[in-house]
């Protein structure tokens, strides 16, 4: 069980790394677009598509890692009044019985959409560049899959009592050493 948890957490960390790399790609693309548009009077055809696709990719590639690091916004004004163990059980059950199934349902929809776009050669119709959309849809599906897996990992951590809401994995690792 610990082996599978570690694999899921490494998967989340790797996707988070690629999300961070995508930020640099987005900066470079937007910098190129600004220089091309204002210095040379030659705007690119692809800037709009690249910007929204990279922004969406950054968001979804980092979602699982953010959950792993407990960096998502937490609205816990009610649950923080409960004892620690009740908080753990409540979070674990919500993650396991609500969030993970919803995440996997969205993953299924995204994967089917990506496959259909690949099979039909679907092109984006918003801009004149008209890129294929299946790579972007595939990243959406991959990010949602990792997010859903991370919900299960976090649920196991909460239910086993190894994690408390608001406690990051870095803090847990510091306690283990």
UniProtKB/TrEMBL annotation:
Top-level taxon of the source organism: Bacteria
Residue ranges of the TM segments: 12-32, 44-67, 88-111, 131-153
Family designation: Belongs to the TRAP transporter small permease family.
GO cellular component: plasma membrane
Localization in the cell: Cell inner membrane
InterPro entries reported in the protein's UniProt record: DctQ, TRAP_DctQ
Assigned keywords, A-Z: Cell inner membrane, Cell membrane, Membrane, Transmembrane, Transmembrane helix, Transport
Known role: Part of the tripartite ATP-independent periplasmic (TRAP) transport system.
Coiled coil region boundaries: none
Main localization, broad class: membrane
Annotated GO MF terms: transmembrane transporter activity
Organism lineage: Bacteria, Pseudomonadati, Pseudomonadota, Alphaproteobacteria, Rhodobacterales
Annotated source species: Pacificibacter marinus
Bilayer topology annotation: Multi-pass membrane protein
UniProt protein name: TRAP transporter small permease protein
Sequence ranges assigned to domain Tripartite ATP-independent periplasmic transporters DctQ component in this UniProt record: 26-157
Record Pfam families: DctQ
């Amino acid at each position: 069980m610990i082996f599978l948890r570690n694999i899921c957490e490494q998967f989340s960390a790797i996707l988070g790394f690629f999300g961070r790399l995508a930020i640099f790609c987005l900066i470079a693309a937007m910098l190129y677009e600004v220089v091309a548009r204002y210095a040379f009077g030659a705007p690119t055809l692809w800037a709009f598509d690249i910007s929204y696709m990279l922004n969406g990719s950054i968001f979804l590639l980092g979602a699982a890692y953010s959950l792993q690091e407990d960096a998502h916004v937490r609205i816990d004004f009610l649950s923080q009044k409960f004892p620690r163990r009740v908080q753990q059980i409540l979070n674990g059950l919500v993650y396991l019985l609500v969030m993970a199934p919803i995440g996997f349902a969205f993953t299924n929809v995204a994967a089917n959409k990506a496959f259909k776009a690949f099979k039909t050669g679907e092109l984006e119709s918003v801009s004149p560049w008209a890129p294929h959309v299946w790579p972007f849809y595939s990243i959406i599906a991959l990010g949602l899959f990792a997010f859903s897996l991370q919900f299960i990992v976090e649920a196991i951590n909460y239910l086993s009592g190894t994690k408390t809401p608001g406690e990051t994995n870095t803090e847990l690792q510091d306690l283990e050493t």
